[in-house]
Amino acid sequence: MTAEPTTAHSSRWPVPPQDGYTVDDLFTLPDLPPHTELIDGSLVFVSPQRDFHSTMIDLLVTGLRSTAPPEVRVRREMTVVLDRRNAPEPDVSVVRTEAITGLDVTRYQAADVLLAVEVVSPDSEARDREAKPHKYATAGIPHFWLVEMVGTDQHPVVRVYELDPVTKAYALTGIHHDRLKTGVPFPVDIDVSADALKEL
Q1: Does residue 192 surpass a pLDDT of 90?
Q2: 101-137 pLDDT, tens per residue?
Q3: Which of 95, 131, 150, 165 has the most CB atoms lying inside 10 A of its own CB?
């Protein structure tokens, strides 16, 4: 008789159903890693983030909250339900205040989101640049920002997009290198320079 080999640590990955996962699965499967997203019925796990990612989110959240009107709230890393098979987690969201019904809220509906922001990471470039903007636009989220680190000095660049109601696609309305200044979804004026990041 031979003994079964034992290991100090064993993990069991969830086996996807034939038609893929749904939003209900995302919120009921046990032991999913924090910040797991649902894209096209597949679970997407988040890799460890760079300091740029974390500090850029902080910078944007602080800047947005400083001018946000009472009818909206700014949230970081909260799930947004787009449809039955898509529930991404934008790095920053601006949501309608009435959508926040308590401190136990775990998700928002796309109809309650005015702005979705993605800060690009090496492991998420294709999702952040292509898949997510398309899905946010299809779901009717009126504003989208894409933030990347560029250049040898590694400074932030924020690309600002607005939903075209005719094409149902995002149109680029501005590229911001040092100062993010726009009038939508409300007046915003944020220092997004490399120096501003270093001060955090």
Answers
A1: yes
A2: 999 999 999 999 999 999 998 878 889 999 999 999 9
A3: 95
Q: Helices (H), strands (E): how many in the chain?
A: 5, 12
pLDDT digits over 1-28, tens only? Answer: 445 454 454 556 667 788 899 999 999 9
Whether residue 88 contacts residue 79, with contact meaning beta carbons closer than 8 Å, is answered with yes
Query: Helix or strand or coil: residue 14?
Result: coil
Output b/e per residue, 90-104; b: 16+ Cβ within 10 A.
Answer: bbbbbbeeebeeeee
Which one-letter amino acid corresponds to residue 41? G
Short-list 126, 102, 153, 120, CA closest to 50: 120
Q: Return all residues near 66 (Cβ < 8 A) that are at least 6 apart.
A: none
Burial 1-26 (b: 16+ CB within 10 A, else e): eeeeeeeeeeeeeeeeeeeebbbebb
Angular region, 7: left φ>0, alpha ψ -120 to 50, beta rest: beta
Res 13: pLDDT: 64
